[in-house]
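Quick illustration, no need to memorize.
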Amino acid sequence: MIFNNYFCTWASLFCCFAKMSDSSNKKKRLLDFGYKFDSEGQLREVDDDGNTTEEGFKFDVHEKRADNQRRYEEIGLIMDREVYDLLETQGGLERLEVGSEEPKSFIFCSPEIRTKEKIVILIHGSGVVRAGQWARRLIINEDLSKGTMLPYIRHIHSRGWGVIVTNGNHNKDDESGNEIPGSETPEQHAATVWGELVTGCQAERIVIIAHSYGGVVTQSLASHPGLGPEVRARVAAVLFTDSVHYGAAKWLGSVARNYVTSDEAVGTPLDRGRGDVPQYSAGHTKHEWTSWAAMDMIFADMDLAMERDKKQGNGAAENISKKEEL
């Protein structure tokens, strides 16, 4: 009995310490690590006066690699909050909770999303990235334009369309650590977002842009037993960047394009790819760069898919733009 009480006491103390550590980390800012973003969106060291220098992010600042990795992960968590803020302040989006039970997940979308005639849904890949991020590594080592979805959001706004930014890797509550009902996986999250938000929107034309594992998420959404028919009827085009989807329904093969890693010029037609989804060069050989490298091509694809006469139907893979003529 004494041992059990002793063990329970230490377990309680450990849990309290863990919560205090989490709370402490949530209060940390980039400046606490000696960094902030400059006017070009590049992460830079700051001097004693708080002004940015020419020095970028440094990984090796401690003797032990484990300490450097821990520091990198702490900065990464701060980056999640930084990008969330940017989606609201620079992206003009609002944060919206999704889910029918507590705890809930959240996404970002245009304030007037339900009345927009055209909508673009942005889906990130797997791993540590959260809403608004294509690649954390690029955010930290390059700049915000290359690593975040902000350039896409600006383009969408310039056309007067609505935008939904999903948050498929937010599967556990930040406070309790409990699984989030309806967002236990990226696939379930996407289905929840579609069912709770997209179904009630007026949009007649929808484009999905998805990176990496976002292809699997899109495929799952299109084959969902309840939502699949609506998804296939309303989505005009699916634009992948180095998607890892495996196999595809005939529908996906007819509306999707996949911009993949390649040393060919951006837009160069490649083989048909996975599940007969046509592949085109993203113009870069590194996976995490594809959303940035193929961006202008994707913008052109989006524009054409949205403006194409509805009587022509979907069929993005064949009709979006004439890559063969580039």
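The two ends are 78 Å apart (CA to CA).
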